[in-house]
Each structure stands twice: as structure tokens, then as C-alpha cells.
Amino acid sequence: MAEVLEVRAEIEQQIAGRTVCLQLQQVAERHPDAPAYSDPEGDGWRTLTYAQARQRVLEIAAAFATLGLEPGDSVALMMVNRSEHVLADLGAVHAGGVGCTVYSTFAPEQIAFVAENVGAKYAVLGGPAELARWQPVLDRLTGLRRIIMLDGAPSGDDRFMTWADFLELGRARLADDPAQVEDRWRAVTPGDVVTVLYTSGTTGMPKGVPLTHGNVFYEVAATDRLTSLPTLGTQISYLTYAHIAERILSLYLPLLKVSHVHFCTDLANLGATLGQVRPMMFFGVPRVWEKMMARLLAVLATQPEEQQAAVRAAMAAGQAYVEAGQYGHTITQEIREAYEKADASLLSIIRGMIGFDRAEWTATGAAPLAPEVQNFYAGLGLKVIDVYGMTETTGAFTGNSPACYRLGTVGRAEPGVEIRIAEDGEILTRSPLNTRGYLNRTEATAELIDAGGWLHTGDIGTVDEDGFYRVVDRKKELIITAGGENISPAEIENHLKQHPLIGQALAYGDRRPHPVAVLTLDGEVAPGWAQARGITFASLAELAEHPEVLKEVGAAVEAANAKLAQVQQIKKWALLGTEWTAETEELTPSLKLKRRIIHAKYADVIEGLYGEPR
Q: Are 519 and 553 in contact (CB under 8 A)?
């Protein structure tokens, strides 16, 4: 404990007095010509240097101040990942305000709740698609003074302002009175709130999580110690800035590492963007890693058997090398030589094809990553390591690192972080990363943080003798069968999703005699799988009813069951002819299952699985 507190004090001294505003000033002065933000433009990129980016941020701050933003006022943001998103957020903060990115998948009622809860005085929206989500509730948002539109601002309505007019207002004001903005950003302190993020809402209305400059820079410093990433590296921003991981990794961390951030505005273009940028680091929620693996496997399946065998042999060497590099293991000379040979002949080529040839840190979080997926990437020589945290802890508070990792765990406590396992198995944590509480939710805050300052994660976990933590499942999502057995649905689901045909899986069985599963086909893999076997189909729904598909999925369920204890095994299952997405509300914006929504939406299907045999 003394060592933990000593490290904490060291980090707190390191970040003392630091704010986002001061950090951006220092970076712009020390590295004025370093590329900061690049947006896709045609076949290339449109780039701002750090000096240009800071000038734009000051102009935006001046514009907000001119419109009447007071210190502490909130600015709601909804747009894709692009430089304007970051600049608007930083501009609000430099004016003394608070940036609040709202999930673009939120329904109008949720948007209204967030805007009112955070007290948004201004909003910056990307275009007509975002405005369409706000339009049904705009008349209720009487506290919203002005809406700035990057594209498609309605004419003849004083509430709206174009981005061009907004910037021009800021340029003129900054030129006329630069001291005003200087005074604003210099008045910002480490204890001030820098952003309010909203939980993506697996149940009920989302909760607002205020995070301070101090929270953010402690996380940045701890992450830097774990990753040891180089300065002036490249990275991709593609997850929403409403997600704590993306906000830390591609908004705040780059201000320390002077990183060049490339924006991927559409997830469908992620593969191409990876190939162009070849990032030094990459974080993906499990669904992203699963999708990339499925695509690679589909390509591999089209190659001659001789080539497939060569790749399998090379990947066996890669997996052995990554497994031997774990904490407490030893990489023998034989393993090293086999890997170096496989890497030179095939693995480095494959990594280059998918844009990971320069990646020094590849990680996952937000939900458990199936061991089979982790092993697949290990076969390519990539350590896709787990980190663990939540919005309420400013992101990760445990993590593996490239130099110290144990597969199947979420790593050790981050520097200066206290963790303990409660009597009921819940993971508790205490550190400068913890939020001060939920915004305007006193009772929920009392449930989150106890009198001793311990934050209750709601997750059940274990820790081994070397300090590596494992997360079993959400405390409220554990299945307790009619026989009293505690079962983790996530563990069952990860085994089911090992087969590339299965896109999503939900295990169910609370107070029931045994678990059942509702499955969906992978919309990218399934059509190719069917065509390769001469199966004709008009839709995914039709494909889900085809006898060969049902036979293959049945074999996948049997294979998953073979890896599970008897009480965990799926007795019956149903295959849906649709995909679950955030837009159709079965997934949160961070791509976690909304179990209650799925339970309700497919109640008849689930009940049928406990009735007559399929």
C-alpha cells in the first residue's frame, strides 16, 4: 500500500497544475509544425499543425465567449469524428466551458434528458442527420441558446448559426480582444470539470459523469507509463468521443505525446484507414476485433490449401511466441527462432496488409474479448491486450502492457490505483481517477462511491497471486439458474461467437433450469459463406432458415458447449435473420448488449426455447 501511495504522489506531482489549455499551449509552442489533426479529403488528407489547431481553438473560444458562454456552461456536441469535433470541444474548454459529446444513436428523449441534465447552453451539430435527432425535442430545450451547424444550418431561424459564421465571429473577436480569451483559459484549474460523459444506458436513462482536468491527466500519465508510446506517432480516431476510451486516447493523450490523429468518419472505412495511417497504437472494443478477424478468416478461406497451411503454421509460431512472452513465462531460443522465421516469411506481411506493421500497443476493453479472438491476433504476432475501466474511473484503472501482460486477464492496477475485491466478489477501486459522482444524481452517487471513497464497479472479479485481475461479469447480469448455479453469460457468449457465422449471441437462463441462447448471423461473413457453398438467398432472414446454415450453427453451439461446464451448456437456441445494432437498440453505442431490451424484444423467442424442442 505504501508503494501505491508513493507512486500516486509522484504522478500527482508530475501533473500538478496541468490543464488541457496549458498542455495545448506548451505543445503548440514546442512543436508548432507537428501535424495534429487530419481529415479525409478525396484520396488524401487535410491537416492542421498543432500551432494552427491552437489558433483555431482560441478563435472558437472567442466565438463562444462572444455568444455569451460563461465559465461552467456546457456545450453539447454531436457529430462524427472529425477535427471540428475536437476543436469545438477544446474551444469550449478554453472559454471556461465544459464539452459534452452526446451519443449520435441516442433517441430524441435521451438527447433531451442529457441536454437538460447537463444544462447545455450551446450545441454544435454535424449536419442534417444529427439535427433530425434533436428536432423533435428542440422546443422543450428552452435553455439552449444557440445551435452551431457544421453543415445544413436552417435559414431564417435565429437559433441556428453556420460553422463559417461562428469561426468568423471568433476570428474578429480574438483579433479585437485577445486578452479576454487569454484570461478565460488561464483561469481554468485542474479541479474544473473538462467534460461530462454519459453512460451509454444499458438500463434506464443515462447518467452524467463529470471528469476534471486532474482526472484526465492522471489517466493520461498512467496510460503513458503503461504503453511507453513514442512522441510524434500516428493514430486513428474512429470511436465516438462520447466513449471514454476514445476521448482519452485520441483527444487528451495526443496533447502529451504530440500524436498525429487521423479521423475515420465512417466505421466501414476503418480497414482502408488502417492501411493508410499504419497507427502506432490502436484500441478496439471486442466487436471491432471480431469483425476484423472474421474478414481476415474469410479472405484466408479463399486461398489454396497449401497457402492456408503455411499461414496456420506461421500463426502457430506467432501464438507460441506471444504466449511465452507473458509475465512469469520464458521465451526459449527455439520459440524465438521459430517466430522470427515465421514473421519474416509471412506474419509481418499480413500485419502490413491490415495496417498493424508499426503498432506498438494494441488493446481492447469495454467488454470481454473472447480468448479465441485474442489467440488469433497472437498468431499474427500482435498482443491485443485487455485493459479495464469505466467512464466513472476516467477509463482504464487496470491494464496489461506490452512488456507485462497475462492473456485472459485485464492486467494489474494502474500506477497509484488501489483495488480490492469485496466479500461478494465485486471489484472496488480508489484513486485520483474516480469521478466525484453522477451529475444531479445524489442517490446514484451514494451507491457508486461509499464513505471510504471506494468506487463500486458493479463487476465481479478475481485477482491472482501476481496481481492480475480477471472480470467475470457484471454483478447484475450473472445468471442464477433454478438450481442455484452462478453462470457468466459473457463467457458462454464468447465461446458461441468463436464461429465466424455467429455475429452476436445472448445467453439467457436466470431462474431457469438451464441456459438457452439467441443468436444472430454475421451480416458480412454469412453471405460469403453461403455463396461459397452454392446457397442462394434473397435476404439474411431467408439465410437464417436454410438447413445448411442451421446445421453449421448447431455444430458451432456443440463446439462451444464442449468448452463449457455442464451447467453452462446451451440446451436450445434460436437463430435470427437480423443483426443487432445500436440503431435498432439491441446494442449500446459502445456495442455492448442491452440485455433487458433483447429480453423484452425477443421474449416470445426465449419462451419458445423453454417450450417445445426446436
A: yes
Please report, to the nearest 10 degrees, the dihedral formed by the alpha carbons of residues 428, 432, 433, 438 taken in order.
Answer: 80
Which residues lie across from 363 on neighbouring strands? 283, 385
Classify strands 418-421 and 426-430 as parallel, antiparallel or unpaired: antiparallel
Q: One-letter amino acid identity for 453?
A: G
**What is the rounded distance in angstroms from the CA atom of residue 249 to the CA atom of residue 394?**
11
| Residue type present at position 234 | T
Q: Give the pLDDT of residue 295.
A: 85
Q: pLDDT at position 330, please? A: 95
DSSP helix, strand, coil percent of the chain (3-state; round to 5): 45, 20, 35
Task: Compute the average pLDDT of residues 384-391.
Answer: 94
Task: Report helix, strand or coil for 528.
Answer: helix
Q: For residue 149, which of 134, 166, 132, 172 has the smallest C-alpha distance?
A: 166
Distance CA 473, CA 397 (A): 17
What are the strands, taking DSSP E only, across 400-447?
412-413, 418-421, 426-430
How many Å apart are CA 394 and CA 432, to the nearest integer? Answer: 9
Amino acid at position 409, single letter: T
Place of cell 488561464: 186
pLDDT at position 594, please? 85
Q: What are phi and psi of 466, to 5 degrees?
A: -100, 5
Position 613 scores a pLDDT of 42
Q: How far apart are CA 317 and CA 380, in angstroms?
A: 9
User: pLDDT-derived band of residue 105, with 50, 70 and 90 as boundaries?
Assistant: confident
pTM of the model: 0.82
Distances (CA, A) of 494 to 371, 532, 539: 8, 26, 26
Identify the band that residue 417 occupies on the pLDDT scale cut at 50, 70 and 90: very high
CB-based burial label for 416 (10 Å; 0-12, 13-18, 19+): buried
Residue type, 375: N
- Cell digits of residue 30: 514546442
Cβ(206)–Cβ(95) below 8 Å: no
Residue 69 CA to residue 66 CA, distance in Å, equals 7
**451-509: pLDDT as tens digits:** 999 999 988 899 999 999 998 877 777 777 766 666 778 889 888 998 989 999 999 98
Output Rg (C-alpha) for the chain, integer angstroms.
25
* Beta strand ranges found along 464-539 (DSSP E): 469-474, 479-480, 486-487, 502-508, 516-521
Greatest alpha-carbon span in the chain: 77
Instruction: State how beta strands 260-263 and 281-284 pair.
Output: unpaired
Measured CA to CA, the distance from residue 64 to residue 87 in angstroms comes to 12
The strand ranges marked E within 245-286 are 260-263, 281-284
Residue 578 CA: distances (Å) to CA of 143, 151, 163, 495, 523: 40, 33, 39, 20, 8
The more confident residue out of 613 and 552 is 552
Lookup result for grid cell 508499426: 358
Q: In whole angstroms, give the CA distance from residue 222 to residue 412.
A: 12
First and final C-alpha spacing in the chain: 56
Q: What is the pLDDT of residues 340-363, one digit of tens each?
A: 999 999 999 999 999 999 999 999
Q: Is the model more confident about 63 or about 295? A: 63
